[in-house]
Amino acid sequence: MTVMTEMREMTHSFSGLQRKEMLQNMSEKTFDLIVIGGGITGAGIALDAQSRGLRTALIDMQDFAAGTSSRSTKLVHGGLRYLKQLDVKVVAEVGKERAIVYENGPHVTTPEWMLLPFYKGGTFGKLSTSLGLRVYDFLAGVKRAERRKMFRPQETLGHEPLLKKKDLRGGGYYVEYRTDDARLTIEVMKKAVELGAQAVNYAKVEELLMKNGKLVGVRVADQLGGNGEKSSYSLYASKIVNAAGPWVDTLREMDHSKKGKTLHLTKGVHLVFDQSKFPLRQAIYFDTPDGRMVFAIPRDGKTYVGTTDTNYKGDIVNPRITVADRAYVLRAANEMFPTLGLTEADVESSWTGLRPLIHQEGKDPSEISRRDEIFVSDSGLISMAGGKLTGYRKMAETVVDKIAAMLVAEGLVSATALSPSRTRTLPISGGEVGGSAKLESFLQSKISQGQRLGLTSAEAALLARRYGSNVDAVFALVAQYWNEAECRKMPAAVLASLVYAIECEMAVKPADFFIRRTGALFFDIAWARQWKAPAIAFMAERFGWNEAQQAAYTAELEQLLHEAVNPLEA
Ligand SMILES: Cc1cc2nc3c(=O)[nH]c(=O)nc-3n(C[C@H](O)[C@H](O)[C@H](O)COP(=O)(O)OP(=O)(O)OC[C@H]3O[C@@H](n4cnc5c(N)ncnc54)[C@H](O)[C@@H]3O)c2cc1C
């Protein structure tokens, strides 16, 4: 049995090479549940539903996580900012959830001490920071070792010498969890697929199929068609969930149920700097000159800063950073870290996301609640809106509880066939490292194993951290593709990651690999530039692209590389 056959058997199929067959196969069955949208909300729902025993299908019109779920601040957090809005329920819920998210996928979440400096006349004073963080520890059920500490000005500067010194009164120190939002989404999806869910990207729901006024399915258009192949499929299910993030209302328009509460989109941008320009040691949560709060976070030799929060009405698929957004973040960073003198030329990359919030009359973008809600339309479309990356598991549990109850009440599924939600203790794909406490020893042993294969310690560490317990499959590919990588003048670690992305994570375009599967376009744009040509050449051969297709995918990646560093004027 070849390595790939073994892997396919292990995970069911999540291969980009079998996308078309999977779409065909999905249209020949009736599912218990169809999930529209493969961001973190949809992935979480698919995992919860499939793991209870519901036959589940998921489709996304773009790549998985290509919407908001690859464009966040990348924190699985207790939501300290919501304390400021007195949204106690959100703080308590997401605070507890982050511990679960961490435990189930310690390879994609990392505890990160956050420093909140306070200044004379700033948003938080000494007392409010101390009290706020204590309430936060309590509400979020923070473990003892991670409870807040308070620093005097000197200690605060000791932790981060780049901070503005004038009027500094001290700092609060507390733990947040850093993640890779897109990889978290992919790992959740992979687990759902491993348990039997069927998921396909680049498949757009263009029509809701009705029978006697009730929703029975969706008509899906393959966005990668071409060559005269079949491109339209009808998928059927007992229940259909709309987890389309910023597009939730677009789907609700299809069954005319967009009334009452609607979405309010706000835009947030982040800028990335090299550590040589912004040598931040310590993650900081700080005041902006206009009284908001933003993060500056060191990560993999870079520092990223964000976010903005402005009302948004433009193109949802490709929101762009503007010159004004960039100026806002630069000003905030230069104000707090005055010795840096950061300029536009120092911005190495950026990303822009849209928050799918639920509209609240008369509230400014930053004041709108991040709570999630479920709407069920007359035709039966179940829409889930609002919410956070952090709360994805709980949101999924809530909506699937509701769906399971409906299915049982309607006699469509037997109550005994369904188990209650299992996701609280279910590791996501790659998360089987023996729990967060064993992560370090797991990584050490995998680094040694990778070195024995001929990888450098840095390469082995990167692969072990990124893929967690799936790294064995990637190491097998390193061995299998070692000679081919040499011929292609690529490091074996890069080629193995690409093959794994294609065959086990349904990457089908260069942008899928360089953005959602590796995060390189944001955090190592030089790496993306360096390996894009051989990676595209390999993909073209694997997928059998013609010249026009190869040129189109290359141009798409080039455009995204360009947009990351070239904001719009308006
Ligand atoms: C700037 C910013 C910072 C944030 N920071 C954080 C943070 O640090 N921590 C945190 O917990 N949360 C954060 N959030 C919130 C979090 O990112 C979002 O709540 C979450 O990613 C939303 O996920 P989603 O799956 O609902 O939406 P999305 O990720 O947008 O997924 C929806 C999917 O639906 C698909 N879709 C739409 N229409 C169709 C159709 N017709 N057919 C098929 N598919 C369709 C889209 O292609 C898309 O992939 C942040 C958000 C933003 C914008």
Give a verbal description of the structure.
Strands 3, 4, 5, 6, 11, 12, 13, 14, 15 and 16 form a ten-stranded mixed sheet that branches. Strands 1, 2, 7, 8, 9, 10, 17 and 18 form an eight-stranded mixed sheet that branches. The relative contact order is 0.15. The chain folds into four domains: 20-68 and 183-260 and 375-405, 3-Layer(bba) Sandwich (FAD/NAD(P)-binding domain); 78-178, no CATH class; 262-360, D-Amino Acid Oxidase, subunit A, domain 2 (D-Amino Acid Oxidase, Chain A, domain 2, 2-Layer Sandwich); 436-565, Helicase, Ruva Protein, domain 3 (Orthogonal Bundle). With 570 residues, the protein is α+β, with helices and mostly antiparallel strands. It contains 19 helices and 18 strands. The model is unreliable at 1-11 (pLDDT under 50). The chain binds flavin-adenine dinucleotide (FAD).
What is the CATH T-level topology of the largest domain? FAD/NAD(P)-binding domain
Task: Note the gap between the termini.
Answer: 56 Å
Summing up helix and strand content along with how strands pair, one would put the structural category as: alpha+beta
Low-confidence stretches: 1-11
CATH superfamily descriptor of the largest domain:
FAD/NAD(P)-binding domain
Shape: globular
Q: What's the number of structural domains? A: 4
Q: Major β-sheet, in short?
A: 10 strands, mixed
CATH architecture call of the largest domain: 3-Layer(bba) Sandwich
Mean pLDDT: 92
What's the total helix number? Answer: 19
Q: What is the percent of helical residues? A: 40-55%
CATH class of the largest domain: Alpha Beta
Q: From the alpha carbons, calculate the radius of gyration and give it in angstroms.
A: 23 Å
